[in-house]
């Protein structure tokens, strides 16, 4: 099934993408791939923006690896499609005809393309695509809601682990700082913190422009402008150390600031994929900071439904997302 | 004090190592540096084992940076010495004459050397040294116990965060797996898990030789041999998924196995500095694993005392440590 044997699909060089499914698997008729932003940028830069060459390389990757995983960035993306066949023992609760988005990375989803990506110009992350993908028993897929634009739903589902874990960590009465509070995962996390009963929420953003957006959205009790990579400036911007700090800033070097902004006995949740494990571990030790540091797990049961609910029910979140989609 | 301004000492290029102390600082008369193993190895290999050149480079680093931080590995080490002067507002509870080990990395400890490292041949990690070091208010130092050999105490203090955090995470009745159970942090973590009331402990080791050592030490209910980098083999070796998995294996690629060995709702504690944040975050998401993942914080209040107590009171732990010291 997987090469080399013994490794899990994500670490595998190559997956078996034949269309036949096992008893606990599901086959999806693929409609569109949504390439990871870092992956698309790398490909576009490598080929100097030549869309034909980008398309050829994506086709080559999928053909040779049986999945879409950029060999340089290691990242994949998501896909949407329609459920085609469901094995009798599949635990995913899907039925043929459901229109779904996969919530596990393309890096571990067997995928075959049948149209040569003929409908894609190679110039954007959204890839119209005919072919099939296989979901395992442990995969996760969300049925796309009827009441939301599918681009909006995809953008929300892409980061839905963050609000769910934030909701789990924040206790009623807690103070919460979200670094990158005007972004996708950040705005959802602020809304989740408030819904979980946070007594004080601080949204930290890097610029006055983002501060204006976040103030307008009304998602934080306090909006502060600071460079999250500058620990002293960040701690000053947050003010009194908070019980929970949520890191949603996708730049390296925010670990020390997040630790310093957090009260003794508090928790830092790192959602940014730019987080350095060593910087977090050694930083907390070096600061003698008794904080619990969580690796932001993108999977929390019920995360998709919870994030979609926030977008439906919190106008400020929806406004920020829709503003990004029209950019 | 620090160059560039605004960054914390660990990230700083250069620290101010003048001997004058602030009101909340402490000056230590240094007796010995204990270089980080990775740092010493890099230096020795760079200079082809020429001790004079290694000594010259360490002197140059300390002189130019005001601290011992290997520019290639980024790591430092610890030091031992005697408290020389204590500022009136120091919160560390030290008094002049105390013989102490620093528990924060040398990478953030101002240090000056006055003997040209004349007593060191450049051929080992233990560096006899005259000079001074400065502890900040947020530094951590442990008074060396009278009843333990100082080499043993240093080896224990070097990893004392692991058992303290393990003790905090393990609930009575829990099942616990420790990857690298025969190592320094691993054996202490196994002892801590049992002391916290774990109902079942599994020590995973990479070889039959280590398995024999760990069985002989009697620290785990079950000893399993497996390559922690092979998720399927590791999960099989652990057996029924455990409530808590503690990763003390200092090789990359153990994240997926640790996640797979852990039950839904359980916790993985990553102590290995070889942990990849992205592999942990994407791995859990990809496996749809509802596990809490903790960055192993080297600082937990009371960690030094707790670890020394385990070495004193658990013969199997002491035996493993003393065995390593005589190697």
Automatic annotation (TrEMBL), chains A, B:
InterPro entries tied to this protein: GroES-like_sf (IPR011032), KDD_N (IPR058932), NAD(P)-bd_dom_sf (IPR036291)
Pfam families, alphabetized: KDD_N
Domain L-erythro-3,5-diaminohexanoate dehydrogenase N-terminal: residue ranges: 2-145
Record protein name field: L-erythro-3,5-diaminohexanoate dehydrogenase
Gene: kdd
């Amino acid at each position: 099934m997987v090469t080399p044997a013994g490794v899990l699909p994500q670490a595998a060089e190559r997956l078996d993408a034949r269309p036949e499914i096992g008893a606990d698997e599901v086959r999806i008729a693929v409609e569109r791939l949504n390439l990871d932003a870092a992956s698309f940028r790398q490909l576009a830069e490598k080929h100097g923006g030549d869309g034909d060459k980008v398309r050829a390389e994506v086709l080559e990757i999928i053909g040779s690896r049986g999945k879409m995983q950029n060999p340089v960035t290691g990242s994949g993306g998501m896909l949407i499609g329609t459920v085609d066949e469901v094995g009798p023992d599949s635990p995913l609760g899907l039925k043929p005809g459901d229109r779904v988005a996969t919530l596990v990375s393309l890096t571990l989803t067997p995928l075959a393309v049948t149209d040569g990506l003929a409908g894609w110009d190679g110039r954007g992350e959204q890839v119209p695509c005919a072919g099939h993908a296989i979901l395992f028993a442990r995969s996760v897929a969300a049925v796309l809601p009827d009441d939301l634009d599918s681009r909006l739903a995809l953008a929300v589902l892409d980061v839905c682990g963050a609000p769910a874990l934030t909701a789990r960590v924040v206790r009623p009465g807690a103070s919460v700082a979200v670094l990158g509070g005007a972004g996708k995962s950040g705005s959802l996390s602020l809304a989740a913190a408030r819904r979980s009963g946070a007594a004080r929420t601080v949204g930290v953003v890097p610029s006055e422009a983002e501060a204006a957006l976040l103030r307008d959205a009304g998602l934080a009790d306090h909006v502060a402008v600071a460079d999250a990579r500058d620990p002293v400036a960040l701690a000053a911007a947050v003010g009194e150390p908070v019980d929970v700090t949520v890191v949603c800033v996708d730049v390296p070097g925010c670990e020390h600031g997040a630790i310093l902004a957090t009260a003794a006995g508090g928790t830092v949740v790192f959602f940014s994929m730019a987080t350095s494990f060593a910087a977090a571990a050694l930083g907390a030790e070096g600061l003698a900071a008794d904080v619990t540091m969580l690796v932001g797990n993108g999977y929390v049961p019920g995360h998709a439904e919870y994030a979609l609910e926030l977008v439906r029910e919190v106008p400020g979140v929806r406004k920020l997302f829709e503003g990004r989609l029209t950019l």
